[in-house]
Amino acid sequence: MGFSDLPPDPPTDLQGPPLPALVSGTSQEFLGQKPLPRVIRDRSMVFILGPDGVGKSTVARTLAGEEALILADADVLDELSDHARTRQWTTRLTQTASLLLECPCFLDRRPAAMDALRTLLRLRAGGGRRTIVVEAGSGTAMETVMEAVHPGYRATIVLRFPIGRGRLRFAKRLCHELGISDVAARDTTEIEPWTYATVKTALTTEQQ
User: Which domains, from first to last, does the chain contain?
Assistant: First the structure.
């Protein structure tokens, strides 16, 4: 890929070049219950980071839309293998209006695959296409992936588990879904490690 193949840098304004945008919150804040932050709506490429089980894939699918081309990590590996043979990315991947990529684990051990993925992101930047990239479970430096794209094109969502009253609200909502008294929710706020999965396990046991 030559210099002429890369998208132009985003236009600057009177305040200088655009900066990377970072937004943090729980998954519920990005699932349509309230307006999305402007940078998440406006930037064409969104990277979603966070611990396992925090809701990254759910948020990614919501942001990508129903018509998105979705590639799970195994699918991405297949596409990388095809790219290694042909030395080019298919139009299906470079031109689709919305693409969701679940980043494979351990790309740091495969420099050629990492470079190929970075090339794909550069090819998709700046053309009005939507790209959502989900952080790998381990072994892939997302900073290296993100640096392939000009800061003005990208935004980053860092998902976290709820704290304080947010934990109780989640547990009560789950109690209602399970058909049990929300009194049981009170005992879940101090679970450690607190995750959606550990709370669900505790309340499902309570239901039995």
Answer: 3-159 (3.40.50), 165-207 (no CATH)
